[in-house]
Amino acid sequence: RAHGGYKISVHSGSDKFSIYSMIAKATGNKFHLKTAGTSWMEAVRVIVRKDPALFRQICDHVRGQFAQDKASYHISGDPAHVPAPAGIPDADLEKVYVVEDDGRQIMHVTYGSAFTAKDAAGNWMFRDRIFALLAKEEELYTQCLEKHLGRHVKGLKVKAAAPKKAKAKTRAKVAARR
Question: Mutual orientation of helices 52-69 and 36-50 as an angle, nearest 10°?
């Protein structure tokens, strides 16, 4: 409040559902819930379910990047506690790398390495294939996001903001000019 309309950013990582209502109350609902990592993990869930071979390639690459990528995070994930994806049946990949803590942390903190990896010729190794798969499986991705992010929104215990009259009037004026 001392800094005007500045919003506190709350990282959704670790699913801090129990503190959301306290944050909402303390800030007067003036906060930003950051969900990029959560959205990435739901993308990983879709990749695991729909293209386990692509997931294994991504996972093999990012496991090698984990030590470097985790430097900016305070986490306890340890690749030594998680089997390499080649030794895991397709049906168990989601459990090991999306649900369980060590695997989830490996995939979460290495998202940048997954998206920026290039081969020797300078081509994206995974990025285009990830986006193509998510576009193809948009309905499943949307369902996964709605289910998981819905838990975050529910934990906020805040009411949806009513549309502001000034904005409605402005939209009406703009529409009238067209």
Answer: 140
